[in-house]
Amino acid sequence: ARQAPPPSAVVFAESTQDVADAVKLASQYDVPVIPYGAGSSLEGHLLAVQGGISIDVGRMNRVLSINADDLTVTVQPGITRKQLNEAIKDTGLFFPIDPGADASIGGMSATRASGTNAVRYGTMRENVLALQVVTAAGEAIRTGTRAKKSSAGYDLTRLFVGSEGTLGVITEVTLRIYPLPEAVSAAICSFASIGDAVNTVIQIILVRQGTEETPHRVAAFLLNRLSLERRFDQVGEREQSLHASVTDVVTATLASLVIGGVIPPLILYRRGRARASVRRISYLTAPLYAAEFGL
Hints:
The chain has 295 residues and is an alpha+beta fold. 27% of the residues lie in helices and 21% in strands. The protein has a five-stranded antiparallel sheet. The chain has a three-stranded parallel sheet with strand order 1-3-2, with helices on one face. A hairpin with a 2-residue loop joins β13 and β14. The N and C termini lie far apart (63 Å).
C-alpha cells in the first residue's frame, strides 16, 4: 500500500487567531491545510497526501461556557468527549455521542460522528447547535445560535458538520447536552433471526414515541420472540422467578424504557409492592442488570 508522506510542518494552535493566521498564510502560498484533533480517525482524514501543513488543535481543549439551564455547552475543538463529560458531570448533565474512540469534539463535528446511542440521542448532526469556523481565506465566522428555534438564513452549521475539514477549520463548538439517566439497565436478549431483533427494536421505539396503539401487542411480541433463561442466582430470600403475564411485561417494559431504554430480561417480584431499584444479578455466567417491578 502507498504510504502518504508526513506534512511539511505542524502548527500547534492555541486560539482561533492562531488558526486564522496559519490558514491565511497557507492560502497566500497555496499550501494545503489538514486539521488535526485526536488522531482517532480510521479513514485517513489526517494524511498529507499532497503535502502541506497540519494544524493541531489539541491544545485548544477548554470548556468555554456551560449553560445548564438551556442544556448547552460551548467548547474548543480539541477537548475529547471524555474530558467534556468529566468537566460537566457535577451539573448532572452529559454529552451522549460515543463513536467508540475518545475522539475530539472538533473531529466528531467535522466527521458527523455517531455511535451506539444514536437511536435515542441522535448523531452530531442533531447535537451541534453552533460553530466558529476559520474558512479557507483565514476568516473566522460563526454559524448557528444556542436558540432552539431559528429559521433565518442558510443553515451553515449543517454544511460544516460532516465536511471533514474541506470547508474550514472548526475552532469552537456549541453542543446540546442531556440529563444523566437516573439508572441504566443492560440486558442480554437472543433472537432467532436478525429480522426478529430489528422488529423488536421498532416496536420499542413506537411505544416510546407514543405511536403504538396497543402496547399489549408489543408485550406479546416480546414474549414470543425473546429467548430468556429462567435460571438465576439467588438474590434475596423472598425473591423468586415468576412467569409474567402480558400485562406484567408491558409494565416492566415501559418502566425500563423510562429509566434506561432497555428491556429488562427478568421480572422479579418482592412482597407485591413496586420497587424502583436496579440490582445486579447473575444471568447464567454473564452479569447484567434487572429492574424489579411488583404489581
